[in-house]
Design goal:
single chain; about 475 residues; six-stranded mixed beta sheet; four-stranded antiparallel beta sheet; 13 helices
């Protein structure tokens, strides 16, 4: 992606002296090969928090991360978990603490060690859980999302510890979750149980992306999310399409009519009561979006306004599941019912409860041909907006620009990280930063997931500079 010109952040002229900055960069570079090797070893562990996968691998992943943290110099390292609502154990989280010296703030560094399932192995160019370097990128499941986030935190902490030595008084807490890719089912309970253990002044969530290779970004907005199902019922049971077809329309046809009302002729979401805006700091061209999203030639893009606003600050609605017989097993039958699952991304500032009610009202009002419509709400999560004027955000923008050698940009992400709302609710005064190591070609969740090693190095440097500056200045 190509950004519009970004302005340097407003910071003090010399937040750290040049010699100290160069020392930190050198420390990161001296350890970088070892950092990459540790990341490769971490990628080799298929820790997946989904019930259909071996939980022993997830436990092995947590133990390996705990060992990495211990080797970085933290002695207070624990593997903790909470039970789910059904009584089964949640994913193992690694928590490690270094207490702050008097007068120093505490920063919590978050990432997650669980990964997505590999999917179809035939789509991978190399084994998913064997990290392979090609053309300056490291390929493997979790190489970017989010084991690189873990290693960025550990490597940055190690560099600052080495360079600052006994002058390093910043409090540091590592929180490496073990069930993020499964929807963080016990995250809220975990926070409530360990509220004091995880208390901090600044939280860095390293689970996002940069603007493009060579251009860093601070993620300043995330969309919220609601999902659910819509079921249409027209018959008590299936009947012969030849004997009874004509006077009544089948359930998939009527459900399709409802789905067709979700968007207007331009492809904008057409559900009354949803908010959105067309204000973004940077934008991308249609050609860039088509390339990044692999849009087929001839397919017209949906929506109006800037492409970035369509991705970040406006709602988007997708049908992500459809219950109906498959084509290979279809018979000449009028189907009595059909169900679809929707996923609605919410613009920052949209209340999820109001959005869910807006969808309900939309589908239940004027059902096609009087069909019975059953709306079932699903999951929901809040959006997020960064206070870009906060001390932590200003220092982060400086650190990113210093590490990459170009000004950082403020960008949104179309996706959602619902647990951030839990963090802001339980810690209302905390300053939250969303950073990341990915780029538009990282293909997180897809086959051939990869990490750009040059940008990974820069991400480690940026976080080391941020830690050093917070240690030096606090939150002034």
């Amino acid at each position: 992606m190509t950004s519009t010109p970004a302005q340097p952040s407003q910071t003090s002229s010399k937040p750290l002296d040049e010699a100290r900055i160069e020392d930190l960069k050198r420390a990161v570079d001296d350890a970088f090969d070892a950092t990459v090797e540790k990341l490769k070893n971490l990628v080799s562990i298929p820790g997946i928090a989904w019930p259909s996968f071996d939980p022993a691998e997830l436990d092995r992943s947590a133990k390996h991360v705990a060992e990495l943290v211990s080797h970085a110099g933290l002695s207070d390292v624990q593997i903790l978990r909470c039970d789910k609502e059904d009584g089964t154990p949640g994913g193992p989280a690694v928590v490690a603490r270094r207490k702050a010296a008097p007068g120093k703030p505490t920063i919590l560094l978050y990432a997650h060690h669980d990964v997505q399932p590999p999917g179809d192995p035939g789509l991978w160019e190399s084994e998913p859980f064997t990290a392979v370097e090609r053309d300056g990128r490291l390929f493997g499941r979790g190489a970017a999302d989010d084991k690189a986030g873990i290693m960025a935190h550990i490597a940055a902490f190690s560099a600052v510890s080495d360079v600052l030595a006994d002058q390093f008084g910043l409090g540091v807490t590592f929180f490496f979750e073990g069930e993020e890719e499964a929807g963080s089912p016990t995250f809220r309970a975990f926070l409530e149980t360990h509220r004091d253990l995880l208390r901090a002044d600044v939280i860095v969530v390293a689970d996002s992306s940069n603007w493009k290779v060579g251009v860093p970004a601070l993620t300043t907005s995330l969309r919220g999310l609601v999902d659910g199902t819509v079921e249409v019922q027209v018959l008590e049971h299936a009947v012969h399409s030849g004997m009874f077809g004509g006077p009544v329309l089948d359930a998939p046809t009527l459900l399709s009519r409802i789905i067709a009302t979700f968007h207007d002729a331009d492809g904008n979401v057409a559900i009354e009561g949803l908010v959105g805006r067309d204000e973004v700091a940077v934008d991308l061209t249609e050609a860039e979006y088509r390339a990044d999203a692999s849009v087929l030639d001839g397919v017209r893009l949906a929506g109006t306004g800037s492409i970035a606003s369509r991705l970040w600050t406006k709602p988007s609605l997708s049908i992500i599941g459809f219950d109906a017989p498959g084509v290979d097993v279809a018979s000449n039958t009028l189907l009595p019912r059909a169900k679809a699952k929707f996923s609605l991304r919410l613009a920052p500032g949209q209340d999820p409860d109001q959005a869910m009610e807006a969808v309900r009202k939309h589908v239940e009002t004027n059902p096609p041909f009087g069909a019975r419509v059953v709306f079932t709400p699903g999951e929901q999560g809040n959006s997020f907006l960064t206070d870009t004027g906060s001390a932590a955000a200003r220092k982060a923008m400086w650190a990113l620009g210093e590490a990459w050698g170009v000004p950082a940009v403020e960008m949104g992400i179309g996706g959602s990280i619902p647990f951030i709302a839990d963090l802001t609710e339980l810690y209302p005064n905390v300053q939250i930063l969303v950073t990341g190591v990915e780029d538009p070609d990282s293909r997180a969740h897809s086959a051939n997931e990869s990490l750009h090693l040059g940008d990974f190095r820069n991400a480690v440097v940026a976080e080391a500079l941020l830690l050093a500056r917070l240690n030096h200045e606090g939150l002034a």
